[in-house]
Design goal:
single chain; 423 residues; alpha/beta; Aspartate Aminotransferase, domain 2; Aspartate Aminotransferase, domain 1; seven-stranded mixed beta sheet; four-stranded antiparallel beta sheet; 16 helices; globular; cytoplasm; glycine hydroxymethyltransferase activity
C-alpha cells in the first residue's frame, strides 16, 4: 500500500487512486534505471503532499506581495540555507519550477536575444536548453555548439577553446543529460575566463554525486550553477540556482518576476527535507555506491559485448551504442521495459539514425542503488539486459516475460520508500 496512505483519494476518486497504486507497484517490481529518475524518501513524499500547496507566496522571504507568510518564509529560508551549506555557495534560489526554467532564468539574467551563447550539442550529450535549435534558447539566441571526440566519446576541450575564442559567447554551458564522464570544471572555467564569458555549470544529473563527494564540484569555477532537485539528489521534482554573490541579484530577478509567479511551497519544503538528508553521512555512502554500481554494471555490460560511449562511466550514467547488437535503441528499450528493466532510448554521438529512432540506450544506477542493490547484483542486471536485447532481436516474447518475472522476484527483496505490497 501507498505510504503516506491514500484513503481520501481512494474514496473521492477511486479510478485515479487505482492508477497511483498501480504505478507504485510498477515502480516496486521493475529495475528503474532511467538516469534522471530515483526514489524519494517517505519524508519527502509527506512534505510534497502537505497543506503548503494551498499557499501563494510571490516574492522572496521578507519581501512578499501577499500576506500570511509568517511560516512560509522560514521554510524557504531553511531550504536556501541548507542548499548554501551543502554546496558551499554564496547564494541559492530554490524557487525554479524545474530544470528548464532554471536554465532560462540564466539567459534572462545575463544575455539578450541574439547574443552568442555556447553549449554542448544535444546529440553529444547536451541539454535542449543549452542552445539546441528546437529549443527557445536556440531560437532566441545565436547558439554555437561543441561536441565530443569521435575516437573517445569525451568532450573535446581543444574544440571548446577554439570555438570560444572564435565566437566570444556571453554564456558557456557545461554539463548535460548524457555525459558518462567527469566534467572538467577547471578547464571550462579557464576558457570562459579567457573570453570573458560567464560559465554556467548544469549539474542536474550529478548534483547528488557532488553533494556526496563522488564527483568534483563546480563551485569556485562556475559563477552560476543550475540543477534539478531530483535525479541523484533524491528530492522532489524542482530546481535550484546556485551562484557567487556577484550574480545573485540578477538571477533572483530573472526567476521572479522575470519568469515565474509564486513558488510551489510544498515543493520548497520537500527540497528542504531532501537537502537535509543529503547533508548526512548515509547520503555520502549512497553517492559513492551509485558510482560503484555504475562502474560495475559498465564492466559487466562490456564483457557481454555492449559498446559503451567513452568506454565506461565515472558517474551514475551509462550510454550504450547497440549497433553491434543489430538492434536500434527504441525497440531495445521497449523490450527491456517489458522485461522489467526501465531505461530510455537515446542518441549517441555521431549517430547515423534519427533522434526518435536512435542507436543507443541510456541508463543509470541512482534508483536501483536507493533500493539497496549493490555491486554484487550488477552482473545479473547485465545478464538480464543482454538476454532481453537478444530476445528483442528474435521476437522471443516468452524469454522477455521470463526475465520480467526474475526481475520482480529479485526486487521483492528490496524495500521501496513510499510503497509496499499488501500481504
Amino acid at each position: 500500500m501507498h505510504q503516506p496512505a491514500l484513503p481520501h483519494l481512494s474514496q473521492a476518486d477511486p479510478v485515479l487512486a487505482e492508477l497511483v497504486q498501480a504505478e507504485a507497484g510498477r515502480q516496486f517490481d521493475k529495475l528503474r534505471m532511467i538516469a534522471s529518475e530515483n526514489y524519494v524518501s517517505e519524508a519527502v513524499l509527506e512534505a510534497t503532499g502537505t497543506v503548503l500547496t494551498n499557499k501563494y507566496s510571490e516574492g522572496y522571504a521578507g519581501r512578499r506581495y501577499y500576506e500570511g507568510q509568517q511560516l512560509i518564509d522560514p521554510i524557504e529560508t531553511m531550504a536556501v540555507d541548507r542548499a548554501k551549506a551543502l554546496f558551499g555557495v554564496d547564494h541559492a534560489n530554490v524557487q525554479p519550477y524545474s530544470g528548464s526554467p532554471a536554465n532560462l532564468a540564466v539567459y534572462l539574467a545575463f544575455a539578450s536575444p541574439g547574443d552568442t551563447v555556447m553549449g554542448m550539442a544535444l546529440p553529444s550529450g547536451g541539454h535542449l536548453t543549452h542552445g539546441w535549435s528546437v529549443s527557445a534558447t536556440g531560437k532566441w539566441f545565436r547558439s554555437v555548439q561543441y561536441g565530443v571526440r569521435k575516437e573517445t566519446g569525451v568532450v573535446d576541450m581543444d574544440q571548446v577553446r577554439d570555438l570560444a575564442r572564435a565566437e566570444r559567447p556571453k554564456l558557456i554551458f557545461c554539463g548535460g543529460t548524457a555525459i558518462p564522464r567527469t566534467i572538467d570544471f577547471p578547464a571550462f572555467a579557464e576558457i570562459a575566463g579567457e573570453v570573458g564569458a560567464i560559465l554556467v555549470a548544469d549539474i542536474a544529473h550529478i548534483a547528488g554525486l557532488i553533494a556526496g563527494g563522488a564527483h568534483p564540484s563546480p563551485v569556485g569555477h562556475a559563477q552560476v550553477i543550475t540543477t534539478t532537485t531530483h535525479k541523484t539528489l533524491r528530492g522532489p521534482r524542482g530546481a535550484m540556482l546556485l551562484s557567487d554573490a556577484e550574480h545573485a541579484k540578477a538571477l533572483d530577478k530573472a526567476v521572479f518576476p522575470g519568469l515565474q509567479g509564486g513558488p510551489h511551497n510544498h515543493t520548497t519544503a520537500a527540497i528542504a527535507v531532501a537537502l537535509g538528508e543529503a547533508s548526512g553521512p548515509a547520503f555520502r555512502d549512497y553517492a559513492h555506491a551509485v558510482v560503484a554500481n555504475a562502474k560495475a554494471l559498465a564492466a559487466a555490460l562490456t564483457e557481454r559485448g555492449f559498446e559503451l560511449v567513452s568506454g565506461g562511466t565515472d558517474n551514475h550514467l551509462i550510454l550504450a551504442d547497440l549497433t553491434s547488437k543489430g538492434i536500434g535503441g527504441k525497440p531495445a528499450a521497449k523490450a527491456l521495459d517489458r522485461a522489467g528493466v526501465e531505461l530510455n532510448y537515446n542518441t549517441v554521438p555521431f549517430d547515423p539514425r534519427k533522434p526518435f529512432d536512435p542507436s543507443g540506450i541510456r541508463l543509470g544506477t541512482a534508483g536501483i542503488t536507493t533500493r539497496g542493490l549493490g555491486v554484487a547484483e550488477m552482473p545479473r542486471v547485465a545478464e538480464w539486459m543482454d538476454r532481453a536485447v537478444t530476445a528483442a532481436g528474435t521476437g522471443d516474447e516468452q524469454a522477455i516475460e521470463a526475465i520480467a518475472a526474475e526481475v520482480a522476484e529479485l526486487m521483492a527483496g528490496y524495500p521501496m520508500p513510499g510503497w509496499a505490497p499488501q500481504v
